[in-house]
Amino acid sequence: MTPLVALVAALCVARLTRLVVDDLITERPREWLIRREGLLSEGVRCHHCVSLWLAFPVAYGAWHWGDEAWMFVPMLALAASTVAGLVASWEE
User: Fold this and answer.
1) Is there a contact between 17 and 54 (Cβ–Cβ < 8 Å)?
2) Residue 34 and residue 9: Cα distance in Å, rounded?
3) HSE of 36, CA atoms in CB hemisphere, 13 A
4) Which residues of 52-71 are buried (b: 16+ CB within 10 A; e: fewer)?
5) Residues of the chain where predicted confidence (pLDDT) is lower than 70
6) Residue 36: per-residue pLDDT
């Protein structure tokens, strides 16, 4: 795995974590899990918890297929979304 693929994978995990924990598009399933009051209800609110579980499949995919377009392009799109979100928050 190249350093570029590793960086893109890390930014990809950051974006996916935000998608699960914070974004409006996933609010209904997240609220449903929270209402269930189980282990997932606590974990779905925790950036560290969610990022750990998302990092495993992303790292596996990046390790095996990160230099192939079908894997790198979606990872790059998620990484670009992370960077755009950071830049937008700095501008505010």
Assistant:
1) yes
2) 28
3) 13
4) eebbeebbebbeeebeeeeb
5) 39
6) 83
